[in-house]
Amino acid sequence: MKAKHTLIALLGFTAVFAEAQAQLKTGANSFFISPGTTVTVSSLSLTPTEATNLNNNEITHSDVAIAGKPTGSINRVYNLASPLTFKGKVLIAYLESELNGNNENVLQIAHAGPDHIYTIPTNKSTPDPILNNVSESGDWTNISTLTATESGSGLPVTLVDFVAAQKENDVVLTWSTSFEANSDFFEIQHSTDGKNWLVLGDVNSNGDSKIERTYSYVHERPLAAVHYYRLRMVDNDGKFAFSRIRNIRVANNFAVAFHPNPVADWLTIEMPDARQPENVKIVSKSGSVVYEANKSELQKLPDGAINLKQLTAGIYVIQVREQDGTLHSSKLIKN
């Protein structure tokens, strides 16, 4: 039986075609692709073997290739606003002018999730240089980006895992890659609310590698709280992608306390007698420093309390730096 083909213009979709991109946008009304039905938008065809939901999604087409090595992707990249999981066939048709140096005889589909980390082509795709397309059938999980690249090429860094674990009073971050192409460094970012991020440091990568590499970074003595971490993986050409976010609840014996939190007026910072803050900053969500005091100024505070009565209600980050440079940060809520 021939597969049924869905004409998107007749299904209540909004389809917009432009020189740089084509777009498919679905609404909140229930829309399922029946098994065996093919939906095509801008030369991307999806043929699921099970009923698939395309509600509240948007597919955009870009002609900007993803950098890779030895060859980047073709100049045809699809992005989905909501990650898609389905079983079935994906087919990408292309123009020869979009090959971007790739050998179409060994073209393979490459895909990434919301973290923008691409899989290494597995030679499971079937290229058809006569019809100028490449296809692959299988289980597709959490797909946010689809494109194609030459077999043997990698699209930036393939992250195997990323783990945050407490070791005594520190948090040890470890991650592994199975493939690196044109990679420059990993930037380690930290947050106390999962929304506002600060840079802790960076670790140089191996640049180009086809074997598993392991990296680590130690966040020394973070406050007892929930902490969030992510990696910004930067290539030599300045392009970057973020890893998935990892969080961990830290309990330690290094007692630094802020109270009350939430705070309405006066905030007290408590540290062990052997340690005193060298500097205190309170930073807004936009990154602006709304309060700062050095050691001598802090010593003059009545009862060691900071007056925050005039501070606008909202969420802030408080940073305490010790004399040895150790930085502690925590989320601060102002009522």
UniProtKB/TrEMBL annotation:
Gene3D superfamilies: Galactose-binding domain-like. InterPro entries: Galactose-bd-like_sf, Secre_tail. Residues 1-20 form the signal peptide. Keywords: Signal. It comes from the Bacteria. Residues 259-333 form the Secretion system C-terminal sorting domain. It holds the Pfam family Por_Secre_tail. This is T9SS type A sorting domain-containing protein. It comes from Dyadobacter chenhuakuii.
